[in-house]
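Note to self: keep these together.
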Amino acid sequence: MKGLIFALCVLMATPLFAVQPSEVLSDPVLESRAREISKELRCLVCRNENIDESNAQLAEDLRLLVRERLLAGDSNVSVINYIVERYGEYVLLKPTLTGANKLLWVAGPLMLLLALGVGIGFVRRRQNETTIDELSEAEKAHLESLMKD
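Structure:
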């Protein structure tokens, strides 16, 4: 009984793909290419889920579009470029390192370095401000009189 429960848990934990049987291409080579491409494209409804695993209607439309382009003879790169032209670069799960994306990729480390520089400058300035001056003779005498009481 425990083995059956374990087997059911394992089956339920495996990822289920949203590709419908009606979408699957008869050519296994084209189908594997379609799956590869689908894993690189983001579902615009679900966010951060590829269209191969998404059940959204738009993801299904994108899967069908990928398969149409493959049947038309397009290469994997040209299929992805076609979809990026239609839906924008956001559709890619792994964005390219061109244009404005360079700025976004570099901005994080630059901000970290800037923050470290400001922090180090603040600490150094603070250390210079906290120097202790010697007590004058009058202050020493007053301190000694307070300590005697």
